[in-house]
User: Which sequence fits this backbone?
């Protein structure tokens, strides 16, 4: 093509073909892309291979570290990390059900109870007229009544509460959890908060009941000589090569430390 090339030179031709000069002959082959992530972005303008510097999820490009909700609106929370999309769903406490709003996934309004001309909310406790020790409860639209001696309460006496019409005291309901506390440093995370606890491959979420649920990011099969970037979960095959403890950029040639007569080259394959 009218250009002189030195023996051993390596260059890229239009159409994503990589060529090399070997003893007066030009050998070309199509660029082979190794994609070490599950949701890569399309190749940028002038590039040949998709990139893991962001995520393409459900046709929408997401930047590195973006936190978003999927289009199905099932209360899951997703995050883009190194071209991989990880999603976590909040675990609702027993007795709750998914709500219509992603910001309040565990709220619900169970069936009310109609009993002797009165309406009671789900979970409401009350006594029959004239019998303060017969306790009834509304559960999912049905009323269950029972007679029992007063139980031994496991809360301090200042938390005892005698409701009108009842013969037994009960403990006041504790406030609903507003977040998660970490014992090691006392930091509180709000419900739904995502964070990485020091390991870039681990992602945690604060559940609605105050518990913490964690999940590890699984890296896809990678190349033989990837670069391990500090703070990044998965090794990077697109940034260059790590060989014999040294880092080389793409298309960089260097002498072999095992044989001074050998010349090596870092290729994105």
Assistant:
């Amino acid at each position: 093509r009218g250009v002189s090339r030195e023996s051993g030179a390596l260059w890229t031709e239009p159409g994503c073909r990589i060529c090399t000069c070997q003893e007066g002959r030009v050998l070309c082959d199509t660029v082979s892309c190794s994609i070490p992530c599950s949701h890569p972005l399309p190749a940028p303008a002038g590039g040949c291979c998709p990139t893991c510097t962001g995520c393409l999820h459900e046709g929408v490009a997401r930047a590195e570290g973006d936190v978003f909700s999927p289009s199905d609106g099932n209360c899951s929370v997703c995050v883009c990390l190194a071209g991989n999309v990880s999603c976590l769903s909040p675990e609702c406490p027993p007795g709750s059900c998914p709500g219509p709003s992603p910001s309040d996934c565990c709220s619900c309004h169970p069936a009310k109870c109609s009993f002797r001309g009165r309406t009671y909310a789900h979970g409401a406790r009350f006594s029959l007229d004239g019998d303060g020790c017969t306790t009834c409860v509304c559960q999912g639209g049905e009323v269950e009544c029972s007679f029992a001696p007063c139980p031994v309460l496991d809360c301090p006496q200042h938390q005892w509460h005698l409701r009108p019409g009842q013969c037994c005291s009960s403990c006041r309901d504790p406030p609903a959890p507003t977040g998660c506390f970490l014992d090691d440093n006392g930091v509180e995370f709000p419900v739904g908060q995502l964070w990485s606890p020091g390991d870039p491959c681990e992602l945690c979420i604060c559940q609605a009941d105050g518990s913490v649920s964690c999940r590890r990011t699984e890296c896809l099969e990678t190349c033989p000589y990837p670069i391990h970037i500090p703070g990044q979960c998965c090794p990077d095959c697109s940034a260059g090569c790590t060989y014999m403890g040294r880092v080389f950029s793409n298309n960089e040639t260097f002498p072999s430390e095992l044989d001074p007569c050998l010349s090596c080259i870092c290729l994105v394959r």
